[in-house]
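Take a look at the protein record below and tell me what you see:
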Amino acid sequence: MMLNKLNRSTASKPLTQPVKILQFGEGNFLRAFADWMVDILNEKTGFNGAVKIVQPIAQGMGEKVNSQDGLYHVVLNGIRQGKPIREIRLITCIEGVINPFEDYQGYLKAGENADLCFIISNTTEAGITFSSNDKSPEVLPETFPGKLTALLYHRYKTFQGEANMALTILPCELIEKNGETLRNTILQYIAQWNLEEGFRKWITEHTLFCDTLVDRIVPGFPKDTVQQVWDETGYEDDLVVTGETFHLWVIQPKTEQTPRVEALRKALPLERAGLQVQFVKDLTPYRTRKVRILNGAHTAMVPVGYLRGLRTVQEVIDDPVTGDFIRKTLDEEVIPTLDLPLEELQQFSNDVIERFQNPFIRHELMSIALNSVSKFQVRVLPSVLEFIQRTGTLPRRLLYSLAALILFYRGEWKGERIALNDTASVLSFFKRAWSHKELNVVVEEVLSNQEFWKTDLTSIKGFSAAVEKHMTDILEGKTF
């Protein structure tokens, strides 16, 4: 059967909605999570909004998305009440991608859109950061917050500071208080660039920042089964993205004004569309549970499983050694650090393991491995430190995972290169660290790097020795 290349012409899907959302990030997660939700909003409510995407890095997917006029399919697979579920949706709400690295003025012009209401982002845990190298909004800033500040400032000037032209910001980066952190970083840029007081007030008094928590496993492009998707849909789609059926978005608007929160729920009627979205006053317990159990397990398993020769999440869980390792890590070293009811935590942990075993999703360990150092600091290290504080002992399995991570960042295992994907500074650090022949020197350099861990881990009694012992065991082929 001849397949048409997917675009708005071949699919007869003209874009009719105005752009209401500007989204930083064109990666798999946002396309299978936020954009999937927007598409359902358009179908089931009167939202009537399109999404314009900003390519956050120079070498991104913008050209590929634009070649399909923003169209792509989301394939969701899962188990519901013991029965397999498979859903395919053609996403039609993407207007296109703009690349600020090639057209900075065109990017700023996106802020002139009077229909624009929301900013969504997912630039990984390393994305919300401040750089003193960003000297002025006249030149494309390096960081995402810098780029966003420049756009908001352009919008502020365009609409002469009108309060109703301020936006709602919904960052999806997996860091604590992501909305508040982004707001504070923007204020740093306003100070560094000496921007006027009126703009600062427009940000602090009228722009609504939200802390958010997102949850959906998104393996991404199904390279092994994409032909099946093409045959099912009748289109050649190079942007197919797979995910699990489970989804959760918890949103905490950073305001005490009840009318403003209700206005947000009305403007973004996610709950009314039947989506698993909660607007809450405090998402802290939701975040801690999810980050330490689900995301923590993901990050902890990557180096352990990879060095054992496994390549997917399901393989790790199904393997008798690593599967037992992850289950006991959660039961014995992560759950004891949390304060929610034990039964609730155990149920969530069991649900997570079941999600990991989803036979329909091939979640590559290497896709989770992106920026693993910052992920370990956010997702796993809090459990390590809390466990030590509560028990006075070292969490053996979590430190084993850290040992495997350091070996993973050597960039080579059993004669094969590991395609590390992290910031240039992280990769260069490990290259220097691994230039030492003595294992104890490598361990000391890595664990004392406070830029990585926000603390000197070598100051914890027995920590370095335990990690070095685990690394030696892994190198000698011993299982935990």
Remarks:
- The domain at 285-475 is CATH 1.10.1040.10 (N-(1-d-carboxylethyl)-l-norvaline Dehydrogenase; domain 2).
- Residues 284-307 form the longest helix (24 residues).
